[in-house]
Design a protein that fits this description.
The protein is of the alpha/beta class. Helices cover about 25% and strands about 20% of the residues. α5 runs antiparallel to α6 (about 165-180). The N and C termini lie far apart (about 105 Å).
Length: about 375
């Protein structure tokens, strides 16, 4: 999934790709059934930058993103494209086709199409460029091939779309947005249904679209670490309001996130990337083994105090010898097999007949085997 190269390594575009646009929203308020769910939001997506929208569930991230794409009607506010530039336009006054040539949105939960090939699905992204009467689209084939290669689904181009996995279908829908060749790309939780590899590759692609093609990217993410790694700016939302907007280092602080999410969140600097890294601590955060924690860490038990050695009489030998009568009464130990040497102090003995260990006491008191030779009774010397 390297931008500008197919999976075989050959270039996939001979012509310049889309040019980035700026999208600015001011005072956007959105209501559902008469209740405001987004309150006076102001957000600016700049060419060549990735802006991540993060926040708890129900904070208005997806609603704001859909409003920027004109899929949700704002009760009030302004939406401008390239404000102050030679191609400045009122985003709310443009026709749907004109707006779709500048802004693309990858939504959540798109339906699974039936009876369509992957290539057919990606070609839907060329709809704004074909005109009302289906006029020719000179860049169509190149744009579709480029989008298939960028998302790593070229080998799926001829397959039926309804035979794909959720992760594969998500990448196909993203390819359709890229085929649209817009200067603004809006992504609503694009890593959903993707395994770890494709999550990272998709975020790398998002970063490449901004860095190498100048696209303005707005993306809704739940993973704070992913947002910190990919975004130039982060907008933090709570209850429909943007409470912080700035660099990841400015927005992602431990105190702010702990208050926002209602759970303790520590923030450290990743030594490898230099970016903020978060860690949410629940009730069982110290449940790991002793080997997983540093000495003195929370959850460790204090060491027991050392016991003083018992004083010994100077006359008494270090290992007193048992009385002679006890030595005679002790049953001689069975000789040990050389193949299984025993620890004289902490031996559990050889395996028993049912796979169990026999203790040393059991070995010492083992009944001698019965001899097969006839036994001749002996008479006692005290017998009459």
């Amino acid at each position: 999934m390297n931008p500008g190269k197919a999976e075989s390594g050959a270039p996939v575009q001979d012509e310049p790709g889309p040019r980035g646009h700026e999208l600015a929203a001011e005072g956007v308020t959105v209501a559902y059934d008469g209740d405001d769910v987004v309150h006076g939001a102001a957000l600016r997506l700049r060419p060549g930058e990735v802006t991540a929208l993060v926040g708890p569930n129900g904070s208005g991230k997806s609603t704001l993103l859909r409003t920027l794409a004109r899929l949700q009607t704002a009760r009030s506010g302004r939406l401008e494209l390239d404000p102050g530039g030679p191609e400045a336009a009122d985003g709310l006054a443009l026709s749907a086709r004109e707006f779709a040539r500048r802004v693309a949105l990858l939504t959540q939960g798109r339906p699974t199409p039936s009876g369509l090939r992957v290539r057919d699905l990606v070609e839907f992204g060329r709809y704004p460029h074909r005109g009302r009467w289906g006029r020719p689209d000179p860049r169509g084939r190149t744009a579709v091939d480029r989008a298939l290669a960028l998302t790593g689904v070229t080998e799926l181009a001829e397959r039926e779309a309804d035979h794909l996995s959720g992760g594969q279908l998500q990448r196909v829908w993203l390819a359709s947005c890229l085929a649209q060749e817009t200067g603004v790309l809006l992504l609503d939780e694009p890593t959903t249904y993707l395994d770890l590899r494709y999550q990272i590759e998709l975020l790398d692609l998002v970063r490449d679209l901004a860095d190498e093609h100048g696209i303005a990217v707005g993306v809704v993410l739940h993973d704070l670490d992913q947002a910190a790694s990919v975004a130039d700016r982060i907008a933090l939302l709570r209850a429909g309001r943007i409470v912080a907007d700035g660099t990841p280092e400015e927005v992602l602080t431990g105190d702010r996130l702990t208050e926002m999410y209602g759970i303790r969140i520590d923030v450290v600097t990743d030594p490898l990337t230099g970016r903020p890294r978060t860690r949410a601590l629940g009730r069982h955060h110290s449940r790991g083994g002793a080997g997983d924690r540093a000495p003195g860490a929370a959850g460790d038990q204090p060491p027991e105090p050392a016991r003083a050695p018992r004083a010994q009489s100077p006359e008494a030998p270090e290992h007193p010898r048992p009385p002679e009568s006890q030595e005679r009464s002790r049953t001689p130990e069975a000789p040990q097999s050389p193949q299984s040497p025993q620890d004289p102090l902490n031996s559990r003995g050889p395996q028993g007949p049912w796979g169990t260990q026999t203790s040393r006491v059991q070995q010492e008191t083992r009944i001698p085997p019965v001899s097969h030779t006839p036994h001749t009774p002996q008479t006692s010397q005290n017998s009459p």
